[in-house]
Amino acid sequence: MKNKPYFPMFIDLSDKNIVVVGGGNIATRRVKTLLSFTRNIRVIAPKVTMEMMELGKAGYVELITRPVKRTDFAMAYMVIAATNDRKLNDEIHRICRQEGVYVNVASDREQCDFYFPGIYMEEGLVVGITASGLDHKKARRIREEIQNALERVAQEDDNEEENDD
Predict the structure, then answer these.
(1) pLDDT digits (tens, 9 = 90+) for 93-127
(2) How far is residue 76's CA from residue 92's CA, in Å, rounded to a whole number?
(3) Do 104 and 79 meet the contact criterion of CB atoms below 8 Å apart?
(4) Is 136 helix (H, G, I), strand (E, B) or coil?
(5) Going by DSSP bridges, is the β-strand pair 118-122/125-129 parallel, antiparallel, or unpaired?
(6) Residue 90 belongs to a domain with what CATH number?
(7) Please, which pLDDT band fits residue 1 given cuts at 50, 70 and 90?
(8) Does 13 map to a domain?
(9) 131 and 92 in one domain?
(10) Model-level pTM greater than 0.90?
């Protein structure tokens, strides 16, 4: 089934082990988003962006600068495969499937157990948007429109509180 629908599920990642394979721009963006939900992130890549290096130095992620090994997935709850190597991403997908680990291959939506949504967070509210991996620009535009609408509502609430005083 090519266009199967994905169930939107909000889960507690605070104590889950997340493995990100890859150290480029996509991996860095994924890690920055995940940091709002957990600090249990291990990044494995021979080379990483400066920003990822800083996240590792600051202790926000466990940074391992070497090629990934099968044993790196032993305790993983979720894996993000964000390398520039299609063969490696395919192997990561295969291993995760065998081990029963949720996997997202950033370059191939057909190899994703879950999609990485566009996220807006504000004061306990979390909104996630996806276009099922088909149209990232549309998903970003919708997330921005929702963000603008929620910010307008918050501003109206603030104005009402000021008028009540």
Answers:
(1) 999 999 999 999 988 888 888 887 878 888 777 88
(2) 12
(3) yes
(4) helix
(5) antiparallel
(6) 3.40.50.720
(7) very low
(8) no
(9) no
(10) no
Start-to-end CA distance of the chain, whole Å, equals 57
Identify whether residues 84 and 125 lie together within a single domain. no
If asked whether residues 29 and 79 sit together in one domain, one would say yes
With contact defined as beta carbons under 8 Å apart, do 118 and 57 qualify? no
Higher-confidence residue of 14 and 132: namely 14
- Tell whether 66 and 125 lie within a shared domain: no
Residues 6+ apart with CB under 8 A from 5: 132
Place of tokens 């549309």: 138
Q: What is the 3-state secondary structure (H, E, C) of 16-66?
A: CCEEEECCCHHHHHHHHHHCCCCCCEEEECCCCCHHHHHHHHCCCCEEECC
- Residue pair 52/61 in contact (Cβ under 8 Å)? The answer is yes
Residue 25 has pLDDT above 60, yes or no: yes
Position 164 scores a pLDDT of: 65
For 126, the enclosing helix (H) or strand (E) is: strand 125-129
Please list, residue by residue across 102-139, b when 16 or more beta carbons sit within 10 angstroms of its beta carbon and e when fewer do. bbbbbeeeebbebbbbbebeeeeeeebbbbebeeeeeb
Residues 31 and 73 in one domain: yes
Range of the domain at 134: 118-164
